[in-house]
Design a protein that fits this description.
Number of strands: 8
CATH class: Alpha Beta
Radius of gyration: 16 Å
Order of helices and strands: HEHEEEEEHEHE
Helix content: 25-40%
CATH architecture: 3-Layer(aba) Sandwich
Low-confidence stretches: none
Structural class: alpha/beta
Distance between the termini: 29 Å
Largest sheet: 4 strands, parallel
Mean pLDDT: 95
Length: 112
């Protein structure tokens, strides 16, 4: 495990593209992480209607920005209720009010 390999601060960034983020957060906490960062991008896709093919070379890609904020807030809230680690909330933060929402959802800090 990483915790045994270093004395440095370990912050695990969690993906929203999972079935149960709370169980993953608990496992990361049990493994010795110092804090959690969530969320990473949501998987998304775009199709060119003229060519009828995916617009992205990898077919799917990471969706970020204001559209992910409601999902990010919910996941921060769920994890904050279940895991006693500091949480860095991120995802769709565009204004100071957005940042306050993350803090009210249980984040200890925010990242933009």
């Amino acid at each position: 495990p990483v915790r045994r390999a270093t004395g440095k601060t370990v912050i695990a960034k969690l993906s929203p593209n999972v079935t149960d983020i709370v169980s993953i957060a608990k496992a990361v906490a049990d493994a010795g992480a110092d804090a959690l960062s969530l969320i990473n991008t949501l998987l998304g896709m775009a199709i060119d209607i003229r060519t009828r093919r995916p617009k992205l070379g990898n077919i799917v890609g990471g969706l970020s920005g204001p559209a992910v904020k409601p999902v990010a807030l919910r996941l921060v809230w769920q994890v904050a209720k279940a895991v006693p680690l500091p949480i860095i909330g991120m995802g769709g933060i565009m204004t100071g009010e957005d940042a306050v929402e993350f803090l009210l959802a249980g984040a200890t800090a925010v990242a933009v």
